[in-house]
């Protein structure tokens, strides 16, 4: 399977959002990665439901909505209604993660769990068969343009072993600091979905950047 690419709209030009959405539509990208930050779970505020719905109006690929928010249960249905087809919640923000994952599925969405750099992948062992994807954060969530944390490779390999051992089909997504220098090694380690913000939108030819990390 070719690597799935999810350009992060966080790095787009918000004053030219439709132009950037059309760029992704016309590229080899597979998703729109939508970063929702609440200023509480993470120390930054990005954008919310109306912007998600506006992107969805023009997007020709599924929205992968990454909820970096406390109490995500309260907003799951609203994000589904705003166009989310894939939804990830943070393990660190969920007291009843199993219930939250069931709810995402009941809403008809693909269900994912995102984990911060300090969170061990072993904490997913008892829920892995329920997950469509795991988003391993390769930076501390909250901002685009940060440096990739090298320890991520070990985590990907360890998670891949857990998935194989469980006989699950869970996909591994990597989010943060992904570029042309680490994409191939991440896929080699077991990743299937790569999120990329700065690398794509700062590139002089964003479609070419997407093509390059797709491999
Ligand atoms: C970080 C976000 C990422 C971010 C990635 O909190 O979850 O999706 O937009 O941006 P880059 O690729 O610039 O690290
Ligand atoms: Zn993200």
TrEMBL record:
InterPro entries: Aldolase_TIM (IPR013785), Ribul_P_3_epim (IPR026019), Ribul_P_3_epim-like (IPR000056), RibuloseP-bd_barrel (IPR011060). Signal peptide: none annotated. Its EC number is 5.1.3.1. It catalyses: D-ribulose 5-phosphate = D-xylulose 5-phosphate. Its cofactor is Mn(2+); Zn(2+); Fe(2+); a divalent metal cation. Pathway: Carbohydrate degradation. It holds the Pfam family Ribul_P_3_epim. PANTHER family: RIBULOSE-5-PHOSPHATE-3-EPIMERASE. Belongs to the ribulose-phosphate 3-epimerase family. This is Ribulose-phosphate 3-epimerase. It comes from Algivirga pacifica. The lineage of its organism: Bacteria, Pseudomonadati, Bacteroidota, Cytophagia, Cytophagales. The gene is rpe.
């Amino acid at each position: 399977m070719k690597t799935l690419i999810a350009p992060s709209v966080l790095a787009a030009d918000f004053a030219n959002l439709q132009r950037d959405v059309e760029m992704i539509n016309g590229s080899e990208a597979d998703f729109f990665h939508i970063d929702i930050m609440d200023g509480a779970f993470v120390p930054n505020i990005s954008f919310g439901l109306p912007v998600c719905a506006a992107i969805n109006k023009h997007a020709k690929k599924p929205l992968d909505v990454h909820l970096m928010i406390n109490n995500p249960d309260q907003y799951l249905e609203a994000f589904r209604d705003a166009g989310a087809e894939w939804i990830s919640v943070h393990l660190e923000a969920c007291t009843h993660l199993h219930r939250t994952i069931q709810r995402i599925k009941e809403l008809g969405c693909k269900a994912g769990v995102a984990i911060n750099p300090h969170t061990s992948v072993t904490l997913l062992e008892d829920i892995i068969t329920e997950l469509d994807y795991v988003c391993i954060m390769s930076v501390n969530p909250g901002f685009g343009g940060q440096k990739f944390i090298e320890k991520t490779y070990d985590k990907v390999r360890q998670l891949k072993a857990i998935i194989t051992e469980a006989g699950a089909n869970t996909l591994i997504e990597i989010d943060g600091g992904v570029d042309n220098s680490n994409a191939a090694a991440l896929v080699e380690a077991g990743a299937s979905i790569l999120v990329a913000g700065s690398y794509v939108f700062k590139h002089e030819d964003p479609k070419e950047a997407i093509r390059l990390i797709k491999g």
